[in-house]
Amino acid sequence: MSSSAYFRYLVDVKDGLATPASSITINNTSISRDHWHKRRATGGKRKPLRKKRKFELGRPAANTKLGARRIHTVRTRGGNKKYRALRLDQGNFSWGSEGTTRKSRIIDVVYNASNNELVRTKTLVKNAIVTIDATPFRQWYESHYALPLGRKKGTKLPEGDADILSKKRSKKVEKKYKARQRLAKVEALLEEQFQSSRVLACISSRPGQCGRADGYLLEGKELEFYNRKIKAKKGK
Fold first, then answer.
1. pLDDT digits (tens, 9 = 90+) for 57-82
2. How far is CA 51 from the centre of its chain?
3. Which domains does the chain have, with CATH numbers?
4. What is the pTM of this model?
5. CB-based contacts of 8, cutoff 8 Å, min separation 6
6. Residues 6 or more apart from 99 whose CB is under 8 A from it?
């Protein structure tokens, strides 16, 4: 700083237009996972034996929101990478009983056992219960079994879907479909969801670590349990 600039700075400090250098504090705090900065169980203070270490650091939570895909990479120990998903709107979901996986759009966050605030802010975390678009699973089911799924009786099907179900097939192929259809049973509660084109799913990946919101469709006892919880929450 030149002498004239320094003089102007002193005048500004005097007039209250600038902050004196002595009162400027640099906030050097960060999230730390060490234990030695905490007090003892007795309430006594500990003397710090060393400075902060990189291996004791903590990072802010990702708080992945529901929205257009945005992922940041984080350099971690050993030059490895973490994929910090800030926003996601789709994922790969597995239909366990049918042994198939489809990419589907995440529509909404409806339940979280740990915190209702995560539902209100539509935050995607592991074990969050979400509603997803059922169309990819219905399309797969109808092409695999040649049977309608979640269709109300008497409703006219779209052209593409009607073609799949009423397509002419050879006797050999027809026999193959007939064998499949014997095992094509979908539980009533899940089929009911397919009628609204939205199914409940659970996120099993960690969006803040791997940058993906993958999971599985809820079925059986688990589906009954979460259905009950969601209805109870709506009734309040």
1. 999 999 999 999 999 999 999 999 99
2. 36
3. 65-235 (3.10.290.70)
4. 0.79
5. none
6. none
